[in-house]
Amino acid sequence: MKKLSFVFLAIFALLLAGCVSTESDVQQEDSGGGEDTDQPTIEILATSTQENDVNILRDQLTNTGFNVELNIQPDYGSFTTQRDAGNYDIALNSWTTVTGNPDYAVRSLFTSDGDNTLFADERADELVDEASTELPGEYEETYRELEEHIVFDQAYLAPLYISLKAQGVNHDIIDEETVRLPKSRAAVWENVDYNDTSLRDSEPLLVHQAIGDLTSLDPIKGNDGSINTLNTNMYVRLVNLTDDDEVVSDGSLSLNHVIADGSQDFYFLLRDDINFAEVDGDTAADTGERVGAEDVQFSLERAKDPNSVPDHRTYSLHESMESIEIVDDLSKLEDTSSVDGNTIKQALEDGIDTEIDSLTTDKTEVDNDEGTYQVVKITTEDPFPQVLNYLAHQSAGIVSKDQVESINTFDVEDYDVNEDVAYGDQRTVLEDSNEENTLYASGPYIMVSKNDYEADFVKNPGYMPGSEYEPNINEVVVKFIQDPESALSALRNEEIHILNGVAENRYDTVEEDENLTLQQNESNGVSYLSFNLEDSILADNVALRQAVLYSINQEEFISFYEGNKLPAVSTLSSLVDTGLELEADPEQAQSLLQEGLVE
């Protein structure tokens, strides 16, 4: 691969020569002038926000020998309309793995029946299924075979780069060491603290998100930017993700979790120091109701059942679970082996203060200090270790069985949004609503009110009190600021303390502000090219697709973005080190182009 400095000089020279055009330049060039009829013409579909990528890509493909036409759409809705109509040869796409596991990164896109499938290929189906049964340390080779097959052998897609994620922190007010920036998990509010800890009870933490119209505060009813962060901080889960996507019990409802031999049964030892919170006026109150195994069983059974609530949007993440049960026989833990060779009981007891003396199915009888615990066992339909990542997702948040059942009394099939008010309905938290706020939060915070401009959250007094996971700051205010520039101004003017999602062209602005710190982490967001495999010159021509693939010089993209992109091979690249990489090869690309023209 070329050195970065050389590529930067090369890109600079191209810019001076006018090879990388603005969108207006592109439109002018495409509207006039002839094309070489000996060269194949390919149409690239993209949105206006991808103009820079389109310009670089167009030049690379032109240098190989393609005639390039552009189909630039003003927004994503128009883009999908054109894509669904087949009006393209190549489309610029992106994918973010929000659960931090490779199966999520490949199943939807690379299997024949995937929700967003790019192609149908039996070998790819086999490899995706095989890898899903394997543990880390085993699946790397399988995923390597998958990438080799779909990227290099068949060229079903062509990678561009991995993006970084960044946030700005006001380090004059906030202790920046307490602010996390996970690859997949949403913001971790309970960890954040002030430099002056005396402000914890008097000053709210001020954060922001772009979307103010909330899908639902019932965690299973949405998986989008309006509620992911909010529900992550309102509902505890069986496991969590570290900032680099490792599955851990830290800060979760589980003291420990264990995978049984065979990777089909999963055990969770529950902690007893979390109570549900409810809203009392403008603050939060401890209900005195413990979050227990009964609530876990109820929450996960409804999570995997597409008919448990109206407009269930996350069941596909949890349909791998066959059963969720509360273990009542201690001998089952003693007679079953874990993947590391110990018994399940031994593995669950690792690092805890009091050994497991007895099990109970009644959460009111739990007393960890006395050795009485609850254990939940989850069995998947097939061996699937990556189910743990889905259990760390906000949609696997634990709700109160009694509270939800007392509210969702309607028949799901006959649900009428104008008459029925479901648990988590946004209307129940609006300041000017006649509806009662019926939220029960198992997580560190609970939403007490919301208007068009902000939402107010208060600390759950029953959330791991006295532990290292007890929230530091009493109140969190989420301000709804849609415009990125306005959000950045709010950070610089101390109207918010943390800005999650600093735009790449504003990194310097944050870094140059003496009151701010820019935090960065690799993301699971990958930009790539997909091909029209149904009605296109590229559809049945592997050589032409490979010509496109080897035309791509990722170093040029990385240099253009001043190092704020990383190389990619597929949507797996930020998750699994397969050892593969894509290197531009202009000669091979031109040779493949000629080979493709003969076919």
Automatic annotation (TrEMBL):
Per the UniProt entry, the signal peptide is 1-22
Question: Which PROSITE patterns does the record cross-reference, listed alphabetically?
Answer: PROKAR_LIPOPROTEIN
- Among the Pfam families in the record, one is SBP_bac_5
Where is the Solute-binding protein family domain positioned along the sequence? 266-596
InterPro entries the record matches: SBP_5 (IPR039424), SBP_5_dom (IPR000914)
Q: Note whether DNA damage occurs among the keywords.
A: no
Entry's SUPFAM superfamilies?
A: Periplasmic binding protein-like II
Keywords (A to Z) from UniProt: Signal, Transport
Q: What is this protein called?
A: ABC transporter substrate-binding protein
Provenance organism: Oceanobacillus jeddahense
